[in-house]
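Assess this today:

___
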Amino acid sequence: MFRKRTFFLILITLALILVFGGIINLHLDLRLLALTPKIFKYRRLIQKYAVKENLDSRLVCALIVQESGFKENARSSAGAEGLTQLIPMTAKELGVEDPLDAEQNIAGAARYLHTLYHAFSESEDAHQHRLVLASYNGGIGRVRDAQALVRHRKNADPLLWEPVRDALSQLTRQHTDMHREVWGSDVPPHGYFEGFDETLDYVERVMHYYGRIRFYRNVLFFL
């Protein structure tokens, strides 16, 4: 009991120092710190499959923080399940028989992330991370459509996140003239992307958690 109380007092003190120092995002950072025991519980599984798939375990951890808050039985309204919120169709393609089983879920997501990283292998790390996360959340097809828009304009590099981020917001009904120029159709190949703002927010949240996990690595998470 004493150890547990001391541990949380340390967390609270550290959080307050960083808040008043203007260093942290209060909501996100306190959520991350509150999940420390869960992260510690699953860190071996995360490390195991991150190493197997040549991934950064800290980014995999950050993704889980955002996706489910480390709730094994988490289910979304869209049917996504488990720690990494795998869609049933994706889980089946990855060979995940039980998405609510923590090890199967993490293993499947790691395989999927490996595929996505390979798809954006020409981008440098900071951009690659964001392109992968956008694909994980919004679908790689939408990211490919955004890259096509960037290529069409010929004024930016489709391997960089910033122009792709801006192009994702143009995969909507309000930009049909642009779509016709690129594809000869009002609708992008993978459909309109009206939920682009949710994906952009998702990418920034995961990257924030990733940065914080790296920062606290040898103090709390040991990833």
